[in-house]
């Protein structure tokens, strides 16, 4: 009978897809027949006339799975679904999930089941991660991504709630300067409370990176020069509102940062271009002068013009870079490698009875 792992998280955008694909690809590499399921999908997409989940389709493609969408994602949250659920017309959806799981696991060695949102998302219609883990008797791996701080209390409460159904946690996106705190304080605290730390995934700038063309689209702007270089990668951003001397100091420390600057600040624009930034984002719908345009073409550095003011663009950029989906092959490879080298697979396989 197939062993089952549930990949959940303390919040949305924590790296579930990366961990699902990383674990799936690693187990496939070890010769195991891996099945995949995402019981509740929150990103409706139709393929061949069947409603499924956008992320689930993507993960299926990567893992080489071809099970029908209505089995992989038996519950798809559409607007209509939400309206019915909140007005109390929510049937018990668990039997559909259980039946789909039983069908999918038939010829598999291991099933990787992906959560949606946080472990408590879906509680309004009784299909939250906690219930799914219990009903399908899965071993939960819970991801906690560092965002200002780690949710150590949440992780201990989850252990109290799930008991033996919790295999452990994965701490994701941990920068080098936070590693000592993780190893010296947080890991010992969690393990003292019965929470196994299965792995610590270091922060990798590439995982949050986005191509210039995609960035322009997400900001509602357009690339006005060096369009052929729209596949350059942006890992971070800097705001060029300060004096040129101060800006240069910051700029030298932040390579691969898009520079957000007013369309009228040609002094900062020129410094950024000559310093080989991946792209300029000019705000306020102001176009640059001819000298800047020419340098941009000569140096092959795209310029994106957007309507919003600098502050609004910076806020949007922050959200885009923290929530950008893993869609590039290079990122998937890197993410799978990070997961493979950071997670204690020996322990995980033992927990699910694969050894």
Give the helix/strand layout:
Layout (H helix, E strand, L loop, with lengths): L2 E7 L6 H14 L4 E4 L2 E2 L2 E4 L2 E4 H10 L5 H4 L2 E2 L2 H8 L7 H11 L5 E5 L14 H8 L2 E7 L6 H11 L3 E9 L4 H14 L4 E6 L7 E2 H7 L3 E4 L7 E2 L1 E4 L4 H10 L3 E6 L3 H9 L5 E4 L6 H10 L3 E3 L4 H14 L5 H14 L2 H7 L4
Parallel strand pairs: 1-7, 1-8, 2-7, 3-6, 8-9, 9-10, 14-15, 15-16, 16-17
Antiparallel strand pairs: 4-5, 11-13, 12-17
Helix pairs in contact: 1-2, 1-14, 10-11, 11-12
Structural overview:
It is a single chain. The protein is an alpha/beta fold. It has 2 domains: 3-206 and 325-351, P-loop containing nucleotide triphosphate hydrolases (Rossmann fold); 210-323, Udp-n-acetylmuramoylalanyl-d-glutamate--2,6- Diaminopimelate Ligase, Chain: A, domain 1 (3-Layer(aba) Sandwich), CATH 3.40.1390.20. The protein is built from 15 helices and 17 strands. The strands form 5 sheets. It has a 6-stranded parallel β-sheet, sandwiched between helices. It has a 5-stranded mixed β-sheet with strand order 12-17-16-15-14, with helices on both faces. It is globular and about 65 Å long. It holds the Pfam family AAA_26. Residues 214-318 form the DRTGG domain. Homohexamer. This is Cobyrinic acid a,c-diamide synthase.
Rg estimate, integer Å? 23 Å
Strand order, biggest sheet?
Answer: 2-7-1-8-9-10
CATH class of the largest domain: Alpha Beta
Estimate the mean pLDDT confidence: 89
- CATH architecture classification of the largest domain: 3-Layer(aba) Sandwich
By CATH, the superfamily of the largest domain comes out as P-loop containing nucleotide triphosphate hydrolases
Main sheet specs: 6 strands, parallel
Q: Quote the beta fraction.
A: 15-25%
Tertiary shape: globular
The number of E-state strands comes to 17
Report the CATH topology name of the largest domain: Rossmann fold
Helical percentage:
40-55%
Number of helical elements: 15
End-to-end span in angstroms?
13 Å
Return the domain count. 2
Structural class: alpha/beta
Unreliable stretches, pLDDT < 50, 5 or more residues?
none
